[in-house]
Amino acid sequence: MAKKEPEQEKGKGILNTLHGAVDSVKESVKETVQNVKLPEFKAPELKVPEQVKDLFKKKPRKEEQGDRDEQEEPLEIKTISTRNAIKIIYYLMAADGEIFHNEEEKFDAIGMELDPGFAEHKEKIVRECKAQMDKVIDPEDYYDVLQDGAELALLSSTPTADTFITPKLLVWDLLTVAYSDESYDETERRFLKHIVRKLDIDKAVFLEMESSIQTLMDLEKELAWIKTTDRPYLTIEAMVNEIAERKTVIFDSVKDLIAL
Fold this sequence. Notes:
The protein is mostly helical. Helix content is about 70%, strand content about 0%. It has a two-stranded antiparallel sheet with strand order 1-2. The protein is globular, with a radius of gyration of 22 Å.
């Protein structure tokens, strides 16, 4: 009979699997990300006299205003700076009300994967996140304050040529964080859905990502169970290989999904 893995080791195995998924996906979309053209920001040229005159102009009727609103395109976020992405990950980890020691270790690991200079930037990033969280007036405001912080991080993001990630990759990173402790609660999912809407990611893409990571979790649990059985070695080896192949198929599918 195979030796049973302690729960702590099982948790590390799942976390390593998820981190492996992140690394695998990032490597696949690296060239795509590097080719993303960063948005150009140009300050509008204001003409005060004309603005003053506009105050006295007749307001458009509702029908006309409606037509005009339909023509306006929503803000499109093509890239997020790694620094602000790390902030959003921090807010997600805080969504359940407290960041535990093991969660902070995960935060450090992901931060270093995203930002080579994370060790130098971490203190300031966390300080800014906590300053946002200190804006809570009543306990029921807590989630809203986190959501406001995430929105601010998205809208104030200033990516540079070598320190940014794409929206889909950010969502995948958030999912790996949410699932890394084997608990994906409603608050975390609510937070993630809000980010998905703000980034204008197709809901079908998000649901497929959720399904993929859930399947990875199930396969990891199945793998852990197989190792506790007393089946013949060759039988166990065949089952382990089959699970590995299924995981590879999922990884490849996620890579394609993010690279689109």
